[in-house]
């Protein structure tokens, strides 16, 4: 890693959060997260997640053919007024996990983007039950779409949300 290492610093007493994110990939690095090898470099710390995933407190724990596991470490900044993790944050985690799962089944140079996302909130996710674990698995990959299923689990292993999504593939 270089000096542009992203960081996330939270000061709960001051209710402040300071963070930086990795630079966007250059045009010559099109689809930098496509392919299982690229994801393994992220797991090994040789590459960064996307700026959006980093901002949401995500980390890629493992990647294998058709499957990724991510962890999400939200802070108080991610809570709704009811004191639980905001559904939009959970949806963002799932959307990222769908994309990274898709990356395991496409070749470098193939782009992808969310076409459809359905999230079912099963139980509230409380901050004391995080970091959350997000498992995403490719159910089907075709020429132009990829279908992915995901689950968000709390530290007790209970499912807090389940999701399905369709990713549009952009082949060269």
Topology readout:
Elements: E1 8-11, E2 16-19, H1 36-43, H2 51-55, E3 58-64, E4 67-72, H3 87-103, E5 111-121, E6 132-141, E7 145-153, E8 159-170
Antiparallel strand pairs: 1-2, 3-4, 4-6, 5-8, 6-7, 7-8
Written account of the structure:
By secondary structure, the protein is of the alpha+beta class. The protein has one domain (21-170): Hotdog Thioesterase (Thiol Ester Dehydrase, Chain A), CATH 3.10.129.10. It has three helices and eight strands. It has helices at 36-43, 51-55, 87-103; strands spanning 8-11, 16-19, 58-64, 67-72, 111-121, 132-141, 145-153, 159-170. The protein is globular, with a radius of gyration of 16 Å. The mean pLDDT is 89.
Q: What number is the mean pLDDT?
A: 89
Main beta sheet? 6 strands, antiparallel
CATH architecture: Roll
Give, in spatial order, the strands making up the sheet with the most strands: 3-4-6-7-8-5
Structural category is alpha+beta
Query: What is the CATH class?
Result: Alpha Beta
Gyration radius (Cα, Å) is 16 Å
Separation of the first and last Cα atoms: 30 Å
Percent of residues in helices: 10-25%
Low-confidence stretches: none
Enter the CATH topology name.
Answer: Thiol Ester Dehydrase, Chain A
Domains, number: 1
**Beta-strand level of the residues, as a percent range?**
35-45%
Number of helices: 3
What is the tally of beta strands? Answer: 8
């Amino acid at each position: 890693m270089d000096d542009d290492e992203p960081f996330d610093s939270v000061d709960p007493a001051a209710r402040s959060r300071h963070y930086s994110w990795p630079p966007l990939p250059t045009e010559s690095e099109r689809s930098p997260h496509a392919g299982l090898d690229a994801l393994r470099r992220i797991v090994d710390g040789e590459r960064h997640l996307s700026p959006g995933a980093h901002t949401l407190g995500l980390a890629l724990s493992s990647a294998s053919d058709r499957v990724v596991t991510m962890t999400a470490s939200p802070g108080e900044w991610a809570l709704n007024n009811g004191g639980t993790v905001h559904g939009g944050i959970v949806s963002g985690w799932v959307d990222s996990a769908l994309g990274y799962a898709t990356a395991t089944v496409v070749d470098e140079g193939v782009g992808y983007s969310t076409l459809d996302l359905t999230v079912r909130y099963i139980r509230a996710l409380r901050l004391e039950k995080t970091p959350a674990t997000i498992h995403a698995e490719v159910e089907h990959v075709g020429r132009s779409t990829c279908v992915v299923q995901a689950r968000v689990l709390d530290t007790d292993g209970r499912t807090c949300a389940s999701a399905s999504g369709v990713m549009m593939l952009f082949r060269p």
